[in-house]
UniProtKB/TrEMBL annotation:
This is Ribosome assembly protein Rrb1p. The keyword Nucleus applies. It holds the Pfam family CAF1C_H4-bd. Its main location: nucleus. Residues 1-103 are annotated as: Disordered. Keywords: Nucleus, Repeat, WD repeat. Residues 104-171 form the Histone-binding protein RBBP4-like N-terminal domain. It comes from the Eukaryota. SUPFAM superfamilies: WD40 repeat-like. It is found in: Nucleus. InterPro entries: Glutamate-rich_WD_repeat, Histone-bd_RBBP4-like_N, WD40/YVTN_repeat-like_dom_sf, WD40_repeat_CS, WD40_repeat_dom_sf, WD40_rpt. Gene3D superfamilies: YVTN repeat-like/Quinoprotein amine dehydrogenase.
Amino acid sequence: MSKRSAEDSITSSNGHSAAKTSASDLPPTTSVADTGDDVEMGEFEDPYGDDFESDGEIIELDSADEDDESEPQGIEQLEAKERQQEEPQETIYLPHKSKPLGPDEVLEADPSVYEMLHNVNLPWPCLTVDILPDSLGNERRTYPASLYVTTATQASKNKDNELITMKLSSLAKTLVKDDDDVDEEEEDSDNEDVDPIMESETIPLKYTTNRVRVSPHAQQTGEYLTATMSENGEVYIYDLSSQYKAFDTPGFMIPKTAKRPTHTIRNHGNVEGYGLDWSPLINTGSLLTGDCTGRVHLTTRTTSSWSTDKTPFFASQASIEDIQWSTAEQTVFATAGTDGYVRIWDTRSKKHKPAISVVASQSDVNVISWCDKINYLLASGHDDGTWGVWDLRNFNGKEKPTPVAHYDFHKSPVTSISFNPHDESIVAVSSEDNTVTLWDLAVEADDEEISQQRREAQELHDIPPQLLFVHWQRDVKDVRWHKQIPGCLVSTGGDGLNIWKTISV
């Protein structure tokens, strides 16, 4: 098992190099032999002292205007003026307003607004990521941090695809603070001089994986059931408990059987899909899978094997883009479709039809998230860049209910949405505009501090006051909250994984 340092991609966005003048910018001088006569000192004193003095012509530095009869400027004044002209004006980058980045341009992160920020480079882009529950404890807030994740690649050739399981450890705190503000004991414990470490185990795959999800009960059951939705239409279920054990047990050899799926779901035929979710309430294993023809299959675990219902849940031929189990009721789940509908289903229905269907968007509904703490709240992200939060109690008898919150900040399709498991008012949203935004729905629009900030910065005038933070990541696709490290997120994009935590959450 190989170990290597994961690259830390933190770069300050505030640092600018001061412009330096060249030798040609200095005023020319004329050498004059020492005549012994006292010559009155000119405006510029010889830096080498009084050994030599010049009675030659005094040459004034060029000013901006040749007709300007003001006193000649000194070199320090000219350097300051050049720096002022060359340094770009600092502005707030807004993905929907600012000039698009060039092909070779990237945004640099400001370390003062991150508590932690690390980047993991991968051999291929990954469309999806999930976090493995671990036994390191809950509510972890100390550093260096450790976490376990799994992702799957989108390689240029099918035979090069892999399911990658990683342990990321020694993740240091990156928050920039003044020495006076940091307690010495906290500084010693939080900022240990160690390099981040990445350990990985891979399983070869034959196809690109559209979505990967890990059972939330892995920590309790000891089985790290992981499902992958492949573009060939098959769903593979792996048990990654051997890979997890190998990270923390020196000399442990992963058996060959652990690199093969324990079960394969073929009920979708050769139709690919994106909908995939494990039940948070059934710890034996209950999995929902949805495909691009609108079919949803339920797979449950029996005492000896897995069983998939032959009759799918079906409402229309619109693609099922996302599936979410209810966080409160074992038999209830929701789906998001390309027809703009969010549907609520009950697995006990003999007709396999939705109980409630509502229009959530005039465009595709790409992703949904069921709130962990308030089980009647459901968030949805749409193809037109908008997203909203719904109160399911308002769904009764209404095909077009009004969302309790609705935002159109993003102008590109929303690719992922997720409620913070520790705070029901915080939502993470990723978009094809290369950003992940964090929102606080508890913020009031008439807050005095918000109003003051809008008056001081013109760019903030039409920004929703609930917007907390904007994180830039190229081609970001999926974002997940770490349930055991409050405020920590893992996002995947074209340049690998970002593990980050802001000072805002």
